[in-house]
Amino acid sequence: MLNLRMEQIGKPKASAEKGLMEKIKLCLSKKPLPSPTDRKKFDHDFAISTSFHGVHNIVRNQSKIRKLIWLVVVLGSVSLVVWQIYSRLVNYFTWPTTTSIEVQYVEKIDFPAVTFCNLNRFQTEAAAKFGIIFFLWNIVYKVLHLQEIRSNYTGFKDAIDFLTSHQNFSITEFVKKNGFYLNSSTLLECDFFGKPCGPQDFAHVFTEYGNCFTFNHGENIQAKEKVSVSGRGLSLLFNVNQVEFTDDPALGFVDAGIIFVIHSPKKVPQIDGLGLSSPVGMHARVTIRQVKTVHQEYPWGECNPNIKLQNFSSYSTSGCLKECKAQHIQEQCGCLPFLLPGNGIECDLQKFYNCVSPTLDLIEDKGLCTMGTHNSSCPVPCEETEYPATISYSTFPSQKALKYLSKKLNQSQEYIRENLVNIEINYSDLNYKITQQQKAVSVSELLADVGGQLGLFCGASMITVIEIIEYIFTNFYWICILFLLKIPDITPGTLPPQDRLGKRNHVEEC
Which of 14, 158, 245, 335 is buried deepest, with most CB atoms within 10 A? Predict the structure, then answer.
């Protein structure tokens, strides 16, 4: 009974398949098939008429030796073409690049941004009043550079007590209030291409050196001006005021002077590792050049043009790393630490110690914020502008200038020597260098190379390729027709007579 029901279910399906096959056969039977003689004639006509060089010589020659020679020549040429095209494709898919260097001379050029910081970060009174400044700055360094907070600090116990008793202590406000400041007493002279400038032309920015000040900031009016004369630029005279600003020398802060970095107005200043130092009693002359670098996107290069930063107008690796750290810390701790960008509640000292520090260790251990390659958190920028600098020093001021400045500032000559820093920044030439990473092989060059190999060895063109495709398709079409017409008229629902007879005998025996 079950077998009978399955046979009834299978009959409609089998009849449907049989009907479809019959329709296909009927359609194909209406189309005349070429005879074997016609197929041979088609092959012969293709061989003598194709634009693929050498094939017609195999067919037309009566001498067997010549036919063999031409056959070897054609097969050898085809082998060389296949090998050459394969090597070209392999070379293309290794994504090779070339680097070109070009120098552009211009009449006017943009002046970079320059960020200045005092090597002594805090005011003396604040340093004396808060003995935990070193501990605080260890936290800042760990946020920026993932350094360990030193537990062997002599005032570590005092720092822990301070954490407990000052829950709402704001590092931002502390640094802004008690750090280095810029006014007429610390910036004595400022000249930009013969025009006077002052503290109002500088933008405040927080860095690992506390309060820093950027000239020619992206939002500053001066940024719209361009340099038209080489050899002149920005000239500044700073008073570091060592008596008022000092760090504890026992903790490694033994220098006095100004540290500065020259960067693009749209880029985040990165002082540590890239900063130039000018000590007191010195005149630093800095000559710069502008170098633009263009990186190719993956797979030719490592940049990713689709990455955009939320808190910075242009992409940079340092800005990306800061945003990456800020995102992970905000997710884990619900606050943002000092020096990292974003809109959120500032982390208090307790959060810094209990949550931010372990989160930074986690970021480092698991590699959550990486840089360099295209698949890292922060790949290299596709375009960046740098300002390589050459710096030279001379003693400042001279004997006569020393007397002049001592009288002008109403300070002793010793004070002038120990506190004044003169910095001059200018372009060496009105030109900029473009270092550009380019694709070594483009798609059009690949096609031209492949076409050249086909033409050199086989005399083939795109039309030849179409001829061969048409020939292969026609033969394939004929083979399919012959195959379909030779299919036996058997469906899954019916069995051959021999199988039916065997099955009946088997039933009778049972």
Answer: 245
Q: Among 96, 89, 208, which residue's Cα sits nearest to residue 146?
A: 208
**Positive or negative CA dihedral for 357, 359, 364, 365?**
positive
Tell me the pTM. 0.70
Percent of the chain with pLDDT over 90: 18
**Residue 369 · residue 380 · CB < 8 Å:** no
Judged against a pLDDT cut of 60, whether residue 165 lies above it is answered with yes
Residue 192 CB burial class (10 angstroms; 0-12, 13-18, ≥19): buried
Report the pLDDT averaged over residues 130-145: 59
User: In the predicted model, what is the mean pLDDT of residues 387-399?
Assistant: 91
Number of alpha helices (DSSP H) and beta strands (DSSP E) in the chain: 16, 17
Cα 148 off chain centre by: 29
* Residue 131 scores a pLDDT above 70: no
CB 262 within 8 A of CB 110: no
Q: What are phi and psi of 235, to 5 degrees?
A: -125, 130
Residue range 411-429, pLDDT digits in tens: 999 999 999 999 999 988 8
Beta strands 420-439 and 282-294: pairing type?
Answer: parallel
**Phi (first) and psi of residue 103, to 5 degrees:** -105, 125
Q: Residues 376, 382, 386, 388: is their CA dihedral positive or negative?
A: positive
Mean of pLDDT over the chain: 79
206 and 172 Cβ atoms separated by less than 8 Å: yes
Distance CA 397, CA 262 (A): 24
Q: Which residues of 448-483 are buried (b: 16+ CB within 10 A; e: fewer)?
A: ebbeebbeebbebeeebeebeeebeeeeeeeeebee
The tokens of 280 are what? 């007191």
**Per-residue pLDDT for 71 more than 70?**
yes
The Cα 345–Cα 364 span in angstroms is 23
Rg of the chain taking only CA atoms, in angstroms: 40
Query: 276 Cβ partners below 8 Å, 6+ apart?
Result: 259, 260, 261, 262, 284, 286, 389, 391
